[in-house]
Amino acid sequence: MDNQITTKFMILKSANEVFEAIVDPVKIGNFWFSSSSERWEQGKSVTLRYDEYEAEGVINVLEIELNKKIVFSWGEESGEETIVTITLKELDKESTLIEVNESGFHKHDPEIVNKMLGQKEGWVYMLACLKSYLEHGVSDLRASLIH
After folding, report:
1. pLDDT tens figures, 97-110
2. pLDDT tens for residues 20-49?
């Protein structure tokens, strides 16, 4: 069984605008987390908050390639660490293909399918919120997903 998930979207904005929306601690609050403790940079540990759920988590930024790639790990504190690789491919000055790959799910976990489906759902939702924010200025979808 392949223990990774991949989600792709096209966003009608430049790779720089997509990249900045993710790594900028203010912009990220418009579509994903409530806040980020600081700008995402290689080698940093960044605390992300979800105010609506009174939750926070830490990511470890492993690699940054300006306007092209963001790699981080998360879930370390729960013992279920995975690696997320976000790649940006600028198709032209006004469109970018964004791909999110999350790997490292424990293949012997009896709940692996449910966990992978939950993460896939989360990535689709995050990318839809990112697209809505960047293309149309919609910033109130972020915390609307109800399980």
Report:
1. 999 999 999 999 99
2. 999 999 999 999 999 999 999 999 999 999
> Which tokens belong to 83?
């690696």
Domain of 112 in residue numbering reads as 6-136
Q: How many domains are contained in the chain?
A: 1
What are the DSSP calls for 89-118, one per residue?
EEEETTEEEEEEEEE---TT-TTHHHHHHH
> Rounded distance, CA 136 to CA 35, Å?
21
142 lies in some domain: no
Alpha helices, H only, 12-111? 15-23
CATH code of residue 122: 3.30.530.20
